[in-house]
Design brief:
By secondary structure, the protein is an alpha+beta fold. It is elongated, with a radius of gyration of 25 Å. The N and C termini lie far apart (53 Å). The chain has 5 helices and 12 strands. The protein folds into 2 domains: 60 residues, no CATH class; 166 residues, no CATH class. β4 and β5 form a beta hairpin. The chain has a 6-stranded antiparallel beta sheet with strand order 4-5-8-9-10-12. A 3-stranded antiparallel beta sheet has the order 1-2-3, with no helix packed on it. A 3-stranded mixed beta sheet has the order 7-6-11, with no helix packed on it. Helices cover 17% and strands 27% of the residues.
């Protein structure tokens, strides 16, 4: 049996205190909430245990605090860490606390599932190259032309799928998103692709057009096994660079 009595006897002394000030939240004339401003004041702790040397939180202190928090197992973004070398389809990784990954998939044949009300047979279909941007909670998808890996200047197109809003955000419906903090980057990307392709396509969102012809007619034709017609794609006015700003 491990002796843990020393842990209970270990003494901890206060060395630093932070006081956070926040501006009063106000409403604008159009009743929209205005973002609040935050100011952080740092105090050293004197020998008598009283706060001394009040000063604005310095950059050095912020870095030390950030490193301390990131060392906490519960706050680690392990989905941004690779098992080995970077995957070839990876485009960009934002490693901040609420970070995200951007990756590319080439034109491929996948299994797609449609609700009976759409009148589209479920099964194998060929799709265009796609660009994915995902956090732990949500995913956006876009289409791109060609087979080459995109660059920052590559134009983006609306992904020609159901369940998408105009900004490419996917409505996952009743899909149970289960990406924990221990998920590595490779599994993170694979899980999002699985969530997307293994869920049922049910409806369109908004009034924007997903493709040049009707989206139902498009996927009825794709069910016949033809290559995806890239001239069906519609530009959304953005490039890859806009996704990684």
């Amino acid at each position: 049996m491990k002796n843990v009595s020393q842990t209970f006897n270990q003494q901890y002394l206060p060395v630093k205190a932070l006081l956070i000030y926040q501006s009063v939240e106000q409403e604008s004339e159009n009743y929209e909430r205005q973002p609040t401003e935050v100011y952080v004041e740092s105090y050293d702790i004197g020998k008598q245990g009283n706060p001394i040397n009040a000063h604005p939180l310095s950059v050095k202190e912020m870095i030390a605090l950030s490193e301390l928090l990131q060392a906490t197992q519960e706050l680690k973004n392990n989905f941004l860490q690779c098992k080995g070398v970077l995957p070839t389809k990876l485009i960009y990784v934002n490693t901040q606390n609420n970070g995200y990954a951007v990756w590319h998939t080439p034109p491929q044949e996948v299994s797609l599932f449609f609700t009976d009300s759409l009148g589209i047979p479920s099964g194998k279909a060929k799709i265009p190259a796609m660009l994915w941007k995902a956090t732990k909670e949500s995913v956006q998808v876009f289409a791109i032309k060609g087979k080459a890996k995109p660059t920052v200047k590559t134009p983006l197109y609306y992904a020609p799928f159901f369940n998408l809003s105009q900004d490419g955000r996917v409505c996952m419906g009743t899909v149970n998103i289960n990406i924990d903090r221990q998920t590595c980057l490779e599994d993170f990307m694979a899980q999002w692709e699985s969530y997307f392709f293994n869920s049922y396509f049910t409806h369109t969102l908004g009034n924007h057009r997903h493709c040049k012809t009707g989206i139902v007619e498009l996927w009825k034709e794709q069910a016949t096994g033809r290559d995806f017609p890239q001239d069906e794609l519609i530009k959304n006015g953005r490039t890859l660079k806009d996704l990684i700003r």
